[in-house]
Design goal:
Blueprint lengths: L1 E2 L19 H22 L4 H37 L10 H4 L7 E4 L5 E3 L9 E5 L5 H12 L8 E6 L4 H10 L8 E6 L4 H5 L4 E2 L1 E5 L5 E6 L4 H7 L3
Parallel strand pairs: 4-5, 5-6
Antiparallel strand pairs: 1-7, 2-3, 2-6, 4-8, 8-9
Helix pairs in contact: 1-2
């Protein structure tokens, strides 16, 4: 499972600075007062070397503890602001792929880096499987092995392997390593250079798999993986 990043545009909101909380300054003054008092007490005992060493160790521990506490307090407002700025996941039933169940039309750059296939041209009459993957993702590679191993059960499904990555070299290597050309029902392998799939299906991780029926109607979105038996059952009702 590989995280997809770089496609979100979080709303701009100023981060709340720690200086906006005046009580932090008061806390620092109290800490300083305690340290000064402790230092004076330590100086009064400087004639006793053994006691002095113990005091030094305790003073260092106290300094580390107080520093950690102040640092944690200063970071809390920034962490809270950063949490608010993160985009919230929409409910799954409000995703475009659910609201608009017809198979969408979007462009896929083919392996030759020149020609483009539009999914509008996917014909009716057979289920369609859109596999969104990263050639270098280990989970995607495991999914490829599983689907290929069960290809006899999935021969009625037209497959379209789509990646968001820029490297066509990695894509061609994946195509060759897994012998995708040997399977007639793998119709297209290419790059979603407009990042349509990511937004339309609400993708956060790859692999993601979208299944459509023979009428090009949305059936189900499988996130992170899919089992051959589930695809078989959904397409052999």
């Amino acid at each position: 499972m590989k995280l997809i990043v770089g496609f979100y545009r979080p709303a701009t909101r100023p981060v709340v600075a720690a200086s906006m909380f005046p009580w932090l300054s008061v806390a620092k003054l109290l800490i300083f007062f305690v340290l000064v008092r402790y230092l004076l007490a330590w100086l009064r005992l400087k004639h006793n070397f053994g006691c002095m060493m113990k005091r030094i160790v305790l003073l260092l521990l106290l300094l580390c503890t107080m520093r950690g506490a102040v640092t944690a307090q200063e970071h809390k407002p920034q962490e809270a602001a950063a949490q608010e700025m993160r985009p919230k996941d929409p409910p799954r039933d409000s995703l475009p792929c659910v609201l608009y169940p017809d198979l969408p039309a979007f462009n896929i750059r083919l392996l030759d880096s020149f020609n483009v296939f539009n999914t509008y041209n996917i014909p009716k009459g057979a289920p369609a499987l859109l596999v969104y993957f990263d050639p270098e993702c280990s989970h995607c590679q495991l999914l490829a092995k599983a689907l290929i191993a069960g290809m006899d059960s999935l021969s009625n499904i037209n497959m379209f392997w789509i990646t968001p990555i820029h490297s066509m070299t990695s894509l061609r290597k994946f195509y060759t390593d897994y012998h995708l050309a040997d399977y007639k029902n793998i119709k297209v392998v290419g790059r979603d250079y407009e990042y349509f799939f990511n937004d339309f299906y609400g993708v956060h991780f790859v692999p993601d798999v979208a299944l459509y029926d023979e009428k090009k109607k949305f059936v189900k979105l499988f996130e992170n993986s899919v089992k051959v038996k589930d695809l078989y059952q959904l397409t052999h009702k």
